[in-house]
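Weekly structure sync - notes
Attendees: PM, LS, DV (DV joined late)
Agenda: review two folding runs queued last week.

Item 1: First target. Sequence and structure tokens pasted below for the record.
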Amino acid sequence: MQPRLDFYKAAPDALNAVLQLENYVQTSGLERRFIHLIKLRASQINGCAYCVDMHVKESRHDGLAEQWINLMSVWRESGVYDPKERALLGWVEAITNVSQTGAPDGEFEALKAHFTDEEIMKITVAIGTINTWNRLAVGFRTPHPVDQPASAA
């Protein structure tokens, strides 16, 4: 995969605006596990290898269980996620795929059962922010770093 352009250099003012949104998400008061869930699931849906790689590593670093991380792409078939996480995963999918889903009432009502209006607003901004990052990384073909393979014992 050949990178198309370096979006960090192409328009610093545009990147700064996205970074301001990211800073808001990181300091919004949302639980870290919810931020990880939002970022990882949206990145999986959008096929963003750069962001999936980053958010898997960040999730591990913050102590989230391997099974919780590994089964996210098949969350509907897994009992690993609690009802609050499941409602959030449904909303992440609905908003990330909004042109197909129309953000259905059922997904919103499930979310509303677990989160306040303020939290729902913050969650939705977080979903929009990671979708922006995904579009930059996928659109400009940003390669993810390749880790050194572990040595055999």
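Item 2: Second target, run right after the first with the same settings.
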Amino acid sequence: MGYTFHTLEKGEFVRGILTASGVGDAIAGFAQDAHLAPIVLAFVIAGLIRAAVGSATVAMTTAAGIVAPIAVTMPNVSPELLVLATGAGSVMLSHVNDPGFWLIKEFFNMSVAQTLKTWTVMETILSFAAFAMVLILDIFI
């Protein structure tokens, strides 16, 4: 239970830094100027944060904190699909800064290169497949 609170706290801390530094506002401005759908924005931001930080939970909480204010201003945005898109983006690009990467490497007695070729690729394919499903659901919802 303590680890869960620590991870959520870390996500809130990173989101706070991004917001206080103006990065969140810059991303919001970019998103509005680029006319990106909030679902695409949530996926991309979560993926970039995941690659940078290594934690899926931190990626989700930070991306949600950035995308939520943007999504509120846009009509016909499904919050459920935003959650799924954020979750899909948060699992991509697992690599050496992700504790799960090292667990898989050690449990399966693989080299770093083997783990990158298997685990990282599998997680990224999973991420894009889930995002494709979100986009399909967005057509019908």
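Discussion on item 2: Helices lie at 2-20, 23-34, 38-53, 56-72, 79-89, 99-107, 112-140.
Action: LS to circulate a short write-up before next sync.
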